[in-house]
Fold this protein.
Amino acid sequence: MSPFAKALDVLQGETTVQMGWLVPTITLLKRKLQHIHISSRFCGPLVDALLAGIEKSFGQILVDPELIAAAILLPKFKTCWTSDKCVVKVGLDYIKCNLKQQMEVYKGEASHSSEDEDFFSAIKKSRSQDDTSQLETYLNCPADTMEVLKSFPAVCHLSLRLNTPLPDSAACERLFSTAGLIFTPKMARVDSKNFENQLLHRLNKDFW
């Protein structure tokens, strides 16, 4: 199962740590497994089990607007990782809705620069205020490196907000530790919803 192993390597990697890698990786994994299912003579049941497990674990995640937007805002992916126009529309709608707020934040930061420091700051300010098509320009840009985001300040701000991971793994480790105390061999048959509720109760008991 080479595609499955490669997908795990990507998601567990130390360089591809942005949240936007998740949805394209899972989407491409599903596509590769479906192709294997068609061409394989003996691994059909295994592929079916893998696809069913992916759908159960990631079905809701693959249609999450914020995660789709995070993928679109990574220059490596943009909208080329899926052919589903509905998925792309969900992500773009989320970006457009939040991009207005990011434009206001950027304009507020730009207004702090004084003309004493930069004589031509007024020209730059008016140019940035008139540029209302940053998203379209970004999507049409052929470059696929993270450096391209510097040319689109509002898009860059939103990309950083959606793709920046937790700076410390302590919170995740506490979550896994608590989950390990709950998910014992005697609790192996607890369904995912019940397990999630017990975990939330355990972690939030100080707020009761």
Notes: The chain has a mean pLDDT of 83. The chain is about 60% helix and 0% strand.
